[in-house]
Amino acid sequence: MNGLLVVDKPGGITSHDVVARLRKITGERAIGHLGTLDPLATGVLPLLLGKFTRLAQYFSSAEKSYVGTIRFGFATDTFDADGEPAGPSVEPELTLGQVRAAAAHFHGEIEQTPPPFSAKKISGTPAYKLARAGKPVELKRTTILISRFEVLALNGPDAPFEMAVSAGGYVRSVAHELGQQLGCGAHLSNLRRTCAGAFTLAEAHTLEELTTLTGDSDAIEALCVHPRCLLPEMPAVTADESALGRLRNGAQANLAEFTQARLVKVFAGSRDLVAIAQRLAGTLFQPVVVLR
What we know:
Layout: E1 3-9, H1 15-26, E2 31-33, E3 42-49, E4 64-72, H2 96-103, E5 108-112, E6 121-122, E7 125-126, H3 127-132, E8 142-151, E9 158-165, H4 171-182, E10 186-196, E11 199-200, H5 207-211, H6 217-223, E12 236-238, H7 241-248, E13 253-254, E14 263-268, E15 272-281, E16 284-290
């Protein structure tokens, strides 16, 4: 089964757990998710199935949007509610204006330290494995882009917010560093991803819904995102049989539909995605990923 399926991930399980569930539901072994969601988090989790896993490289820079809540009063070792308190709890004395003023520093291009309990690797070892073993975790600060961070209210110690952040950004690191800046500690108490690139909650399916379709490949494929809607930044080209034959065999081909784009999606018919091809010159293209 080839396609991209958007799942509404429930809380309390890992993204890898979702992949394992989908393998049982679909019978497809080759499945990969686009952008890990922590066990605490829920929401949009796109998954590539079958040969479409070869497309993962083209989704790596997608911005992601979230809604959630930051709780002030104490930090945790994981930077979220699943962790252990990293110090004594205090009663924060904050105003909404103070929180918003501090949040304004977390906008645009900033440097961020990933959480110690994360999949970031240190000399080939995931940081979370070192953290669980009680070993020191020293992660380098990375540059991310936060295009939106709006604190919506302040209800006691809880501040609901909305955020849009570039790939590789950690929302829980923002919560942790915001607590440090305000001097009272903070952690992420809940998080829901509402958008991952072009994919939204409106097209997401629950695991319960998908479980009822176990073994029904046609029904599951009907829930996948239409292939022509994938990677909208790449033009779609419908090729003739001669060009398709050459591209399927890794050879260069002329595509009748001329485009100045560097990369194009090549289709046989309306929805059969055959390849991603790179323009060499004029109408001459070289396949870089062959799917069919």
